[in-house]
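Feature request disguised as a bug: please show the residue count (537) next to Response regulator in the output. Example input:
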Amino acid sequence: MNILLVDDDYYVIAALQKKIDWKMLNIETVYTANNVAQAREILEKHSVQILISDIEMPQGSGLELLAWIREQNYSIQAILLTNYADFNYAQKAIELQSFEYFLKPIEFDKLMLIIQKAVVRAKEQQSNEQAILEGYFWQKNQSKNVEHFWRRLVSGSTSFPLKQADITHAIKEQHLSYQMNDLIQPLLINVFPHNGSMGKEEKDLFDFALLNVLYELLQSPLYTIESILEVKEYNWIAILKWNGHPEDSGALQAFGSSFIQKAVPYLKCDACCSIGTAGELHNIGNILKQLLNMDEELTKCRNRTYLVANYLHQPKTAYTPPDLAQLEELLNQNKLADFLEEAIRYLKSMLSHQSLDTSVLGLFRLDIVQLVYTFLKLKGIQAHKLYAGRVNDQMLLHSLQSIEDMEEYLKYLVNTAMEYRNFAAQPKSIAEEIKQYIHAHYGDDLTRNDLAEIVYLNPDYLARLFKRETGISLGSYVIQVRIAAAKHLLETTNLSVYTIASKTGYTNYSYFSKLFKQEVGLSPNEYKKEQHSHGVG
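Example output, currently without the count:
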């Protein structure tokens, strides 16, 4: 496998040659060129499978080079580099079937993975071309057939009981060589990418790196890897087929430990590994169902390995709530930090004494949420408004995935309450925020309920607080601001009174005129004439 580097910047070429581990990527020869003409000459003389080229070069662009490569029908995976996030560049790169479009400055760890993917694609292309030449094109589809077979079995095991006849039919349909007494064992891998990591920002690249790690660590003469499938986001199932009698779980537990050790530093994520039971293919429906049920029901700690065999023999325990009265008292004393500490302490004690089901954890979460919501309600704060939004929805959804996710949700829940409790305890700040909002949005519909939503307070509580701090009711203040705005528009513009009424939040012209006269002593038209006459005088 050979590669060509093209860039008019000598230092970029030197950095690529030095910082990329070409040997590890199985690249035999690294050719270099400083312009398009040199690159063409190399491509005409040597076999090159991968190209890394800058786009902006003085003697011809990387896009022009790629267009020429496509005209010549060279089978080359092209990775284009550029300093600019230009849509036209990206569009042209797509049209020319570039493998990847990469913005400078170069992040070498990501570029390594992209090159690795390009090597895999180049090898696939070579083997496909060879297969076509030899008339064995069906081999290309074999892995897809196996993947499709296992994906059907995995999805089928959760929706309806898998019958032996269904499995036999699927084997025949996909022309596979499985026997019903083959010994199969599934593994489920959950990954939790760290914030800001590749797993969060560039999932395709992360999945590629993850699969590399899994296939590398699962290599063994004892079994073959039949398929590795993503069953839902960040949840993967590996299907193993034992070559003989299954070993004890030690070998697979060792894999779990090795994977977790590698996942944290290399993939920048936490992980859990769940090991299903081994059994014959005809019983695969039950085996998969047990594994997937455990994944749904068991509250996991991150970076641990779990055995379905152990989980099946653990007794289910009922939920025993924490001392709710004590927790409520901590809230009443405004000791939210102590409340959070006690809630997390109890959560960890639950885990140490029993196998913690998600149903039990869900009841614990419900108790804590109700306590916090009640506390906020007593403070006049509308909790359902305060916690509305995407961040809350995501954290609530993920909170049952692991103990760490639940801890993170509890901290978010309590810290948000604490921050807003402190804000709500400063009535002047709230009154000022409402006043600023009214001045900025006097033309909008400003009901008491609308204004209360802005500061997540009960409307009655906000009305009392505002009057106490300003000496004027909310409704009267809105009228004052709107009339002041109307006076300014009447003084400084030639807009009609109807238009000014609409701009200041009044769709009913008669009502606007009535209010204006009450506040100013003149009708809007009279006030406008008076101001303009003064201006003329």
